[in-house]
Amino acid sequence: MRHSRIVLILWLVSIAGFLLHAVDPPAPIGHLIAMAVAFASLMGLYVLFSQPGIDTVFKQVTRNGGEYGLPGFLWVVFIVLMLIAQAQNALIEIALAAAVLWIPTALILNNQAALTPIHAALGLIVLLVPLGIDVVLGARLAAAEIALRAGALALPVLLILLTTREQKSRLSFLFIAAVLFMWFMVEFGNLPELGLPFADSAIRYMQFALIVLLPYLLTLSGRLPDLGYTFSLTRDDWKEAGINLALFSAIAIPFGLITGFIKPPTEFPSALHIIGQGLAIFFFVALPEEILFRGVIHRYLERVLRWTPRLTLLLSSILFGAAHLDNPPNVGTYFILASVAGWFYGRTYLRTGKIVPAAVVHLMVDWVWSVGLGG
Prior knowledge:
75% of the residues lie in helices and 1% in strands. It is an all-alpha fold.
């Protein structure tokens, strides 16, 4: 019961924060209602997956071919918002949204534990979509962008090549292909442009839809209970989060000052802006990234490779750092600090067994840096 009240409060607070952002500048009342309903629906689903036993409920609801129901709902909402916004290139965007939602769902539903040549080829071919769809549509990439995408494709290739036969027996490659598909669509900016709100987009609708889709696909694959996704935190959870935040700060602040990555600000934003930024960072950066990197990628590598927790933590932290290589300037410094941060986020997750304490540490790091130390 206590957890349900926390979830309800978080849901209401997030809606209030969205409305405050959406009404400045003022939007037509019809647009505002449509955006608020869409946001409230997606946010409700997002936090609902933290409820104990929700995986059992969803599995019962989605039996007998109903697995495509949630992706279909997310797609229909997107179409309605596109029509209201009178967006350009609507047909292309609607088709792209369908691919973004249904391709990873189909991969999860056709997944199997042991790696087969057909699944290896299928998974790699599917990953070419998020890595090259913008090129097909006419975009021109710089050399650095090409290198980053080649490196992204190298990750699953190396996973296939460097795992033993015994590890391949539990590789579940279509599962990881589905996860990487969603990650790469966001990472390389190939999602449809429609934003919430329409006028001054805080987040793309499809990015939010993927944040909701990921725990749903974890439910279909039977992995949601492994996630540790709950907002009910104990005193020890908060203590662990505080310890790891302090340890990271003791390393990152001196390093950041020496390298010039950290620069004290000349002025601070308003209190309302700071609060809104904190909510946005938690729900749309910290929590989804911790679900992805700690709850999914770390646990997946732990199952497949069966390395020690510390060695798996090191690898997942490096992958987390590599995900920030497209954040100029000072890419090298960003990679080092992000990798170190990933270590302490992961350490929090391993010591608590919960995603949210790691997301709290992540929130505090990003929040303090964006508000007070980013220069």
